[in-house]
Design brief:
The chain is α/β, with parallel strands linked by helices. The chain folds into 2 domains: 3-130, Rossmann fold, CATH 3.40.50.2300; 135-232, Orthogonal Bundle (Arc Repressor Mutant, subunit A), CATH 1.10.10. Helices cover 42% and strands 25% of the residues. The protein has helices at residues 11-22, 37-44, 60-70, 84-92, 105-119, 121-131, 165-175, 184-191, 200-212, and strands spanning 3-7, 27-31, 48-52, 54-55, 58-59, 75-79, 97-100, 135-140, 143-148, 153-156, 159-161, 182-183, 218-221, 225-228, 231-232. It has a 5-stranded parallel β-sheet with strand order 2-1-3-6-7, with helices on both faces. A hairpin with a 4-residue loop joins strand 9 and strand 10. The longest helix has 15 residues, at 105-119. The two termini are 20 Å apart.
Length: 233
């Protein structure tokens, strides 16, 4: 898990970025202006900084210059400016990547992965090892749930379940991000290869809960979506 600073003054955009970065199990610290970023680096030592160029109390280029005077922390610039001169400035200041708005959050996640792989291979190796666990046993209120990705076996309270491909995808995806709340739209995008109504998710979740036999494994967040509950044994 990496520690990632996100410096972006647009609340809506920052929230979207934070959501997608957290889905990768990274720790995120948010800023809406340049103030306190340098002091926070001293305390937390981030593995990466996602930095907007246009900020209310200064600009990202100036902040990046201050950072580079003391630290080698990788930086991904975010900007609405797409001119070649601005991109060159960003790279000359030691930026590791330059993303022009509007952009796809998924693309940003891929760029984050690429920068971390390049600048901190040991961290990436540990992350891959931790997320590559193929067999997990979850515990919740004396109930147990075994998920074996190698054999596609699901055991709920030692009883083998027969899941549809969609039910399998939903359960594994939710369990891979315990405690993280997903909207129906996010689950559709991540678990379906074809278009269906967002309410279809509700039907699949209902069927999945019935098969699990203990509905508390999947928590409903009213007016938003679902999350997985449980602790690894």
């Amino acid at each position: 898990m990496a520690v990632i600073f996100i410096v972006e003054d647009n609340d809506t955009l920052r929230e979207v970025i934070v959501t997608y970065i957290k889905l990768e199990n990274h720790e995120v610290i948010e800023f809406d202006k340049t103030a306190d970023v340098i002091n926070s680096i001293k305390k937390k030592s981030p593995h990466l900084i996602i930095l907007d160029i246009m900020l209310p109390d200064g600009d990202g280029f100036s902040l990046a210059k201050q950072i580079r005077e003391k630290y080698n922390t990788p930086i991904i610039f975010l900007t609405a400016k797409s001119s070649e001169s601005d991109r060159i400035t960003g790279f000359e200041l030691g930026g590791d990547d330059y993303v022009v708005k509007p952009f796809s959050p998924k693309e940003l996640v891929l760029r984050v992965k690429a920068v971390l792989n390049r600048t901190n291979p040991e961290l990436s190796k540990k992350y891959k090892e931790n997320t590559a666990s193929k067999k997990q046993t979850w515990i919740l209120n004396k109930h147990s749930l075994l998920i074996d990705k190698n054999t596609h076996v699901i055991n709920a309270d030692k009883k083998k379940l027969s899941l549809t491909p969609v039910e399998w995808k939903l359960l594994v995806y939710l369990a891979d991000h315990p405690g993280q709340v997903f909207s129906r739209e996010q689950l559709l995008e991540s678990c379906f290869d074809y278009f269906v109504s967002s309410r279809t998710i509700d039907t699949h979740i209902k069927n999945l809960r019935n098969k699990l036999g203990y509905s508390a494994w999947i928590n409903t967040v009213r007016s938003f979506g679902y999350s997985f509950k449980g602790k690894l044994k």
